[in-house]
Specification:
The chain is α+β, with helices and mostly antiparallel strands. Helix content is 54%, strand content 15%. The longest helix is centred in the N-terminal third of the chain and has 58 residues. Its EC number is 2.7.13.3.
């Protein structure tokens, strides 16, 4: 046997509807209690006032006659007094002890010896309301009324029952209206949630192009915006992964094809196994080794797995050391290195990783700068940060190529291509190292006709020491 399990819309509807029902029932009982107490208090105050008036009128008659003989067993006389006290006419045929109008209880008139002169044959209740009749300072009798909580007239009982029926009818109609209003309200409130649920199912199925409509500026609207941002990131990462795998396959295919061709040529006797052929094979192996090492370094820096042991580092000293190691290689290609550096610049960073950063940038300029060119390394401190500029000479790149220069495996056409021996990963690795130090890396046009790589790093006092 299967039981109905409501969805989130049904649960929200039941929660709101149940809350409405509880509120309606609570309000019903509160109104009923308030009405009953108020009704009884109203009757009580009216009866007390009438008791006082009746007592005063009987006292005047007692003073006029001198005794109670005129009243004994003369209920009609009392009712005449009551009718004279009332503004409206009442029931002309009251029951025993029941006044014509305005009264909701039985009453008795007793003399000074507590003997009943007027009233029903029922015993006088001990908790009744008593008003003494005073003549010349002496109590000559009393008027006693039964408790007002005991409704005795049919009109009172019928009125109370009518109020109960009306109150429950109002509760029933209010419940129906609450149900009619709650269901569309629940559907409207949960419409954005359902869109997010459907979008999540699409993401889980691998459809990263899905988007949801972000309506409103509340929490659900912000959640929809975050969902769309997440979907965009996943879609971009998926495309980057596909491109990355395609680029790796392409990069590995070329040196492997060269190796295979040369080995087959040697095997077939087309090419002799000489030191030159061995050197050619070693060059291709070196290219593969460099590519694999760059891929490893890139994956490590992407995951944050590179060990960073930060301390106070003088950037100027590191730049001079790195340039000194490259000076002979630059000279062999007819390139010159010039500096425009202050005496010292200290940052809080990892000496080895910063040296790797500068070596990659120097290697990049060495590979892609035409013979006879130059490289200017300058540094400027401003706004609690230092900007290090590696500006080389021709060849340059276009504006479109400049935007893609830091992309993985990207190499421009012409002189800055694979013929120069690069893997297209050096600047991507540099980007990760700079970001790990809280800085930024950007490529712009060099004033010397080449490319300018600008590295901005926070100065030492601006970096946290929690690494």
């Amino acid at each position: 046997m299967k039981f109905w399990r409501p969805g989130i819309t049904g649960k929200l509807f039941l929660a709101i509807f149940a809350t409405c029902i509880v509120l309606l029932v609570t309000m019903h009982w509160a109104v009923r209690l308030s009405f009953e107490h108020g009704f009884i208090d109203y009757i009580k105050r009216g009866n007390e006032q009438r008791l006082q008036l009746l007592g005063d009128a009987l006292g005047e008659q007692y003073a006029l006659h001198g005794n109670w003989r005129f009243l004994r067993n003369n209920d009609r006389f009392v009712f005449q007094i009551l009718r004279s006290l009332e503004h409206d006419s009442g029931d002309d045929r009251p029951g025993p002890g029941m006044p014509p109008h305005g009264w909701r209880t039985q009453f008795w008139v007793v003399d000074q010896d507590a003997r009943v002169m007027v009233g029903p044959r029922a015993p006088i209740p001990p908790d009744g309301t008593r008003r003494a009749i005073i003549v010349n300072g002496a109590e000559v009798g009393a008027v006693i009324a039964s408790p007002v909580e005991r409704l005795t007239r049919n009109t009172d009982i019928n009125f109370d029952r009518q109020q109960k029926r009306t109150s429950w009818l109002i509760v029933a109609l209010s419940t129906l209206l609450a149900a009619l209003a709650t269901f569309p309200l629940a559907r409207g409130l949960l419409a954005p949630v359902k869109r997010l649920v459907e979008g999540t199912h699409q993401l889980a199925a691998g459809n990263f192009s899905t988007r949801v409509t972000a309506t409103g500026a509340d929490e659900l609207g912000k959640l929809a915006q975050d969902f769309n941002q997440l979907a965009s990131t996943l879609e971009r990462n998926q495309q980057m992964r596909r491109d990355f795998m395609a680029d790796i396959s392409h990069e590995l295919r070329t040196p492997l094809a060269v190796l295979r061709g040369e080995l087959e040529a040697i095997q077939d006797g087309v090419r002799k196994f000489t030191p030159d052929s061995v050197a050619s094979l070693q060059a291709e192996v070196a290219t593969l080794t460099k590519l694999v090492e760059d891929l490893h370094q890139l994956s490590m820096s992407d995951e944050g797995a590179l060990a960073y042991q930060k301390a106070t580092v003088d950037i100027v000293t590191l730049l001079e050391m790195a340039a000194g190691a490259f000076r002979e290689r630059f000279a062999s290609r007819g390139l010159t290195i010039a500096f425009s550096l202050p005496e010292n610049i200290t940052v809080f960073g990892d000496r080895d990783r910063l040296m790797q950063l500068f070596n990659n940038l120097l290697e990049n300029s060495l590979r892609y700068t035409d013979s006879g060119g130059r490289l200017l390394i300058s540094a400027v401190t401003e706004n609690q940060s230092v900007t290090i500029d590696f500006a080389d000479s021709a060849p340059g790149v276009t504006d479109e190529q400049l935007k893609l220069l830091c992309e993985r495996f990207y190499r421009t056409e012409g002189s800055r291509n694979r013929a120069s021996g690069g893997s297209g990963l050096g600047l991507a690795i540099c980007m990760n190292i700079v970001e790990a130090h809280g800085g930024t890396l950007n490529a712009t046009h060099s004033p010397f006709g080449g490319v300018s790589i600008k590295v901005e790093l926070p100065l030492e006092r601006d970096l946290p020491r929690d690494v």
